[in-house]
Amino acid sequence: MLDQTILVADDEEHLLYQIEAYLKQAGYRVITATNGAMALELFKREKPDAVILDVMMPEMDGFTAARLIRQESMVPILMLTARDDEFDQALGLELGADDYITKPFSFRVLVARVRAVLRRVTHQSNTEAQKLIVGPIQLDKEARLVTVNGEEVDLTRSEFDLLQTLMMHPNRVFTRMELLEHIHGEAFAAYERTIDVHVKNLRAKLNTDLIETVYGVGYRISKI
User: Are 211 and 203 contacting, i.e. CB atoms less than 8 angstroms apart?
Assistant: First the structure.
């Protein structure tokens, strides 16, 4: 948690200091701004892990800052407002905010909300990292499952490992010896042509021509 940075923007400086203190106590690094323009500048420079924006701020309001930040990043954004107004809340969420907190609020609740949005982002990132997608092919590394257009495809261990290697590096050309090393942990020239057999079987099972032969070199999978 100590390596996570939170950007907080609010023109009420006493409230800003309190939020900063609670977040620091919770283990976060905190950077602060007193208006939307300053918040946007800090965001571009510091690349924080989450952003807390007050709606009503001078120079640039929180809605505008949220919209501009969302154009550049999917960083979690929490909006603060002194008004319990459904229109404000709906507008903030439509602009890409992940959560909305009405003043006055409990600082413990604010910290809990920050933790919650960061957990969601971390979980989503980990989940996405387990899945590789190239064209109609989706490969789930953890479940060792491959689907094409949503239909499960039964692969051998070697075929799965070969496909995973290619999908992790789309458009990169692998030699047969490199692919053997990825599949078996070692490579022998005598077994080099077994890769051709695996590729032939993969093409038939996947019913796709995304696995390309680069003559004189090896194979690659094309990123559509």
Answer: yes
Q: Where are the alpha helices (DSSP H) in the chain?
A: 13-25, 36-46, 62-72, 86-94, 107-129, 157-168, 176-184, 194-206
Note whether 135 and 119 are same-domain residues.
no
Per residue in 184-224, pLDDT (tens digit) is 665 555 456 788 889 999 999 999 889 999 998 999 998 75
Domain count, the chain: 2
Domain end among 123, 141, 157: 123
DSSP 171: T
Instruction: Give 81-137 pLDDT, tens digit per residue.
Output: 876 666 666 666 666 677 888 888 889 989 998 988 888 776 565 555 678 888 899
Whether 106 and 189 share a structural domain:
no
List, as one string, the DSSP characters of 59-105: SS-HHHHHHHHHHH----EEEEESS--HHHHHHHHHTT-SEEEESS-
Question: Are 103 and 141 part of one and the same domain?
Answer: no
The answer to whether the pTM exceeds 0.70 is: no
